[in-house]
Amino acid sequence: MSQVFAAKRKRRKKWDARNWTVFLIATLGLLSILVFHYLPMVGLVLGFKDSDYSANLLQTLLFGDWVGFDYFTAFLHDVDFWNVMSNTLLLNLILLLLNFPAPIIFALILNEVRHAAFKKSIHVITTFPHFISWAIYGGIVIALTDQTTGVMNPIMNVLGLSSEADPVYLMDAAHVWMVIIISSVIKSVGWGSIIYMAAIASIDVQLYEAAELDGVTRLQKAIYITLPSIAPTITVFLLLNIGRLLSNSFEQFNSLQNAVNLSRSEVLSTYVYRLGFSSRRYGYATAIGFFNSLVSLILLIASNFISKKVAGRGIF
Questions:
Q1: How distant, in Å, are the alpha carbons of 32, 45, 57, 274, 277 from that of 67?
Q2: CA quadruple 115, 121, 127, 129: dihedral sign
Q3: The whole model's pTM is what?
Q4: pLDDT (tens digit, 9 = 90+) per residue, 82-115?
Q5: Number of domains present in the structure of the chain
Q6: b/e map of 69-97 (b: 16 or more CB within 10 Å)?
Q7: Which end of the chain is more exposed for a tag (fewer CB within 10 A), N or C?
């Protein structure tokens, strides 16, 4: 028996430089997740302790008085609760209905472009906005929608949607949702299509060739071959998006917010930031953030369960 184990040990390959490189990169990734995602979870204790307006958060974290679920109860009775929650849910639902299918449709259209250089140029142009930070991108959006110097009002004048005597202020409470949705779609459609383009590229070409022999049109190939083939990828991203229904891009909303549209643009992420950093209500802000994460986890698990029951596939 000992000879068998000795023979197995001899057959094991020693790690070469490539193995150690992969191991090092994986270790750095795990350390990054540990430091920036798991260690900060210790701060969730502040949501259950009397930490509002605390001058020493570390001392409060270790020795502060427990308040239980008082902050969670206070949030449910907050006068801003329904406004913030409705803004968050409705905006995210609209963004899900538009932002999620937009990259899929764009990838399907781009896949039909036969001119390689033109196809690559379009993809580069549409992907570029993703690499602009929301601080800069939001400033560009605000400049474009300015009542006096922006280019949107002259365009709306030509279309009969505005007038020089009474220009429309697109960043007010009545129009800010439209600005948020359109700017979000423009910024994300190119980058979001990359993963779907990669999934489309992995489809067996023989399927398309066989369909062409049967006289199938391009639209029919997209519906009956391409979409079913990339369905697993679509499912994964759909579930992840459903899990983020209460999560908004803080940079996006913070850059487009002002005193005029605050009632319509205040979402959980900006509300938590305002409470935590401007009002110094650390415990209250922590409790709201924990509530957000808990609901997102429940949504993810529920949508994954439904997906596995209905479509037979899920994330886990």
A1: 32, 10, 15, 22, 21
A2: negative
A3: 0.82
A4: 999 999 989 989 988 988 999 999 999 998 888 8
A5: 1
A6: eebbebbeebeeeebbbebbeebbeebee
A7: N
